[in-house]
Amino acid sequence: MKKNNVGNVQVARQTHDKGNNLAQAILVMEKRMTNLENEISALSTSVGEIAQVVKTVGQEVIAMKLKSERTMKPMHFNFLTQKGVTRLRDMFNPEFRNFPKPITKVLGRTDVKPIKFMKIAECSSGGWERTLEERIQQQLADFDESLPFAFFPGRVVFLENHHAVVFGPMAQTNKESDFELSSSFDSLIGKDRSLLFDKEEGMFYGGRYKFVDVRGVHPSGFIFDGAETTGIPKLKQIVLASQVGGARLRSKDIPNLIWEGQIRFEFIGLQFISFDNNLYRRLTRNTSIKATDTASHTANGSIVSISVKTSATAQIAPELKRRRSKSVSQSSSSGDSSDSSEDEDGKRKAKRTRLDQH
User: Compositionally biased, Low complexity: which spans (predicted)?
Assistant: First the structure.
């Protein structure tokens, strides 16, 4: 009887041990299954992420391809309509948002007073660039201003924070119509100018601006597009002034070339730097300006860069006085030396103002 009991106990223990081992094995298997499920889940996540990355990269490649195709073709633009101006602003505003804000107080373009010594209507007559140059020199007599002026009639589009862009013909060779144009902006990149701009009310001082290159926004250039024709006369003269090769373009042929898209344009950036209130007050004050004969000068309607360096006048005058005194003391009986000094005086005055044609 005892032997049977012992045997039963041993069998029971063995059964219990096997049960424990089986339970542990089940726990291990369940743990492994959990780990495997986690690995499968992680792998699925990774596969999903990879798929999303592949999708995103594919979309970016397609977008880049489409953008490349677009930038390889000239873009149509119209600076004469509000819709066209808005489109240009949307395109170029991002290029200027990283520039520092101006440190000087700025007058809004609706608050500035017009320049009274030059009417916009005069800018359509022959020799208006020379007229503007001479009148600025008269207006700024004895004023210490050595920064050149720039004026782009009808071609400036203002952006955010007083920045702006201006357009003109880009460098191009047209074999179909046999002409070659140069860019009028290459020599201006990186330079500062006092900007004058025009509106229907007249001509205004805009402030100090630096020319920056934004042609990378659309390297293939722009084609003027629109039903309006009022802006074409403003473009004819700058196209003529930009021609450097081929058969000489005729003024009457240029509108058709522009409408046909054979003449491409480009935009250059104008980074706002500061607003000179003293210069502004001097330019807008009421003064009597001596009339200038514009008929004797030739206008080309191109970029006008006017350099007025009145500060040099104070340095020139004493030197001329010393030379005149010396000439009089050396030759009291002859007027040759005095005449020579007067001729030199006239040459120096002529050099005070420089008009760069771009």
Answer: 327-338
- Interatomic CA distance for residues 94 and 261, integer angstroms: 27
pLDDT per residue as tens digits for the range 12-64: 666 666 667 777 888 888 888 888 888 887 777 777 777 777 777 766 655 55
Is the torsion defined by CA of 240, 211, 265, 126 positive or negative?
negative
Compute the distance between CA of residue 168 and CA of residue 268 in angstroms, rounded to an integer. Answer: 8
Question: Domain limits of the chain?
Answer: 1-72, 75-308, 314-353
pTM exceeds 0.70: no
The letter for the amino acid at 200 is E
Q: Which residues contact 72 (CB under 8 A, 6 or more apart)?
A: 220
- Helices 128-139 and 277-284, packing angle to 10 deg: 110
Residue with the two structure tokens 């900007």 = 195
